From TrEMBL:
Domain Amidohydrolase-related, chain residue ranges per copy: 54-418
Biological source species: Paenirhodobacter huangdaonensis
InterPro entries on file: Amidohydro-rel, Metal-dep_hydrolase_composite, Metal_Hydrolase, MTA/SAH_deaminase
Lineage: Bacteria, Pseudomonadati, Pseudomonadota, Alphaproteobacteria, Rhodobacterales
Protein name stated in the entry: 8-oxoguanine deaminase
Keyword annotations: Hydrolase, Metal-binding, Zinc
């Protein structure tokens, strides 16, 4: 069985139950699993030097729309609020097909990997021109990241009072049938799974109450997780009050969308009662600080959520609203926004790093990931803190969030080295960028 020793780290940040930080420690990987963490570990396997480096669990991204990597910085959507931004971009997204979905996924996944991410979800809720969920699953397999794709959907088009054009919505029966198809074909419930599938109607303003309820029933019958957007901005709250006569939290609870098998994206506008509901029900939240800033949605009450016991993770969101996909930068932004809102002592660098690693794994139900301890999967990020960005830092762990680096040196997923010396080992990145550029220009027309 193949062994790797990551040797002599300046600090190993374990994120274990005691949150130990081990100076000068090694990490032994055997067959895709962490076998030991400590000093002076012997092995006849491959040795990877971590001198001058901080070693952390791989970062976990819990909300993305990978297809949006083809529509960064679109002029008509650069300065729009959420609903206006969507109506600008829907007609562009309607031109996509399988190649666009796959190539944009490769681009987004490459960006995540280089920023230290080993596990990511994706929320794909439109399937134009023959596109399918497996277009993204193939991309994740090619690059080697652990993947939690969600089969999203939109069923209420403009003619029925919804936001999306009718060309992008699907019949609800077809949506549910395809959810069953992709779960049966790709979902792996076992520990160490590289692919797990979730069910994810897009939002309360693009699907019916019936579909939300049926999706929850289907997901629980199949034993998979549920995901959607919720309480993203003031427009979202106003829509919920006008259409459903209640706030988003009540809407979610009424339809079966709370529990430890559910996570909602954004939740910028949750009130105190909704925060308490999420804490009691163990409902997860994917916090997307850069996207919330970009769309002017506001600052999510992350400090209040965590203090109440809500499980909070990070998401970069789609690259049409971020417009980047750098997960370590997202963690820094989360920390800074909580300080802006609540004071300089509101969130430490270590707490933000915990949200970005262990917090994400917990929200996605991946108890086999998120920490560096014997028996956990070997998803490991190695950060070089000996260079310019962290030069002069007294505390190398805090420096990851306060200073840098913003790109990982080495990245291991299931013990396989996906990034070596800052370069992807699994992908011809220049060729992907060339394809991405060609496809983006074609969409721009």
């Amino acid at each position: 069985m193949r062994e790797i020793v990551i040797r002599g780290a300046e600090v190993v940040v374990t994120m274990d139950g005691a949150r130990r930080e081990l100076k000068g420690a090694d990490v032994l990987v055997r067959g895709g699993v962490i076998a030991a963490v400590g000093e002076g570990i012997g092995s006849a396997g491959e040795v990877v030097s971590a001198r001058g480096c901080v070693v952390t669990p791989g970062l976990v991204n819990t909300h993305h729309h990978l297809y949006q990597s083809l529509t960064r910085a679109v002029p008509g959507g650069q300065d729009a609020l959420l609903f206006g931004w969507l109506t600008t971009l829907y007609p562009i997204w309607a031109k996509m097909g399988p190649e666009e979905i796959r190539v944009s996924a490769l681009t987004g996944l490459a960006e995540l990997a280089l920023s230290g991410c080993t596990l990511t979800s994706d929320h794909l809720y439109l399937f134009p021109n023959g596109a399918r969920l497996e277009d993204t699953i193939a991309a994740a397999g090619e690059i080697g990241l652990r993947f939690h794709p969600t089969r999203g959907a939109m069923s209420i088009g403009e003619s029925a009072g919804g936001l999306p054009p009718d060309s992008l919505v699907e019949r609800e029966e077809a949506i549910l049938n395809d959810c069953i198809r992709v779960i049966d074909a790709f979902h792996d419930p076992r520990p160490g799974a590289m692919v797990r599938v979730g069910v994810a109607p897009c939002s309360p303003f693009s699907v019916s109450r019936g579909l939300m309820r049926d999706a929850a029933l289907l997901a629980r019958d199949k034993g998979v997780m549920l995901h959607t957007h919720l309480a993203e901005n003031d427009e979202d709250i106003a829509y919920s009050l006008a259409q459903f006569g209640c706030r988003p939290g009540q809407y979610a609870e009424d339809l079966g969308w709370t529990g430890d098998d559910v996570w909602h994206a954004h939740c910028v506008k949750l009130d105190t009662a909704e925060i308490d509901l999420f804490a009691r029900s163990r409902t997860g939240v994917a916090h997307c600080p850069c996207s919330n800033c970009r769309l002017g949605s506001g600052i999510a009450p992350v400090r209040a959520m965590r203090d109440a016991g809500v499980r909070v993770a990070l998401g970069v969101d789609g690259s049409a609203s971020n417009d980047a996909g750098n997960l370590i930068a997202e963690a820094r932004q989360a920390m800074l926004l909580q300080r802006v809102q609540n004071g300089a002592d509101a969130m430490s660098a270590r707490e933000a790093l915990e949200i970005a690693t262990l917090g994400g794994a917990q929200v996605l139900g991946r108890h086999d990931c998120g920490s560096l301890a014997p028996g956990k999967r070997a998803d490991i990020a190695v950060w070089d803190v000996s260079g310019l960005e962290a030069a002069g830092a007294w505390d190398p762990v805090a420096a990851l969030l306060l200073a840098g680096p913003s790109r990982v040196k080495h990245l291991f997923v299931e013990g396989r080295q996906v990034v070596r010396d800052g370069r992807l080992t699994t992908l011809d990145l220049p060729r992907v960028i060339e394809a991405q550029t060609r496809l983006a220009r074609a969409l721009a027309g």
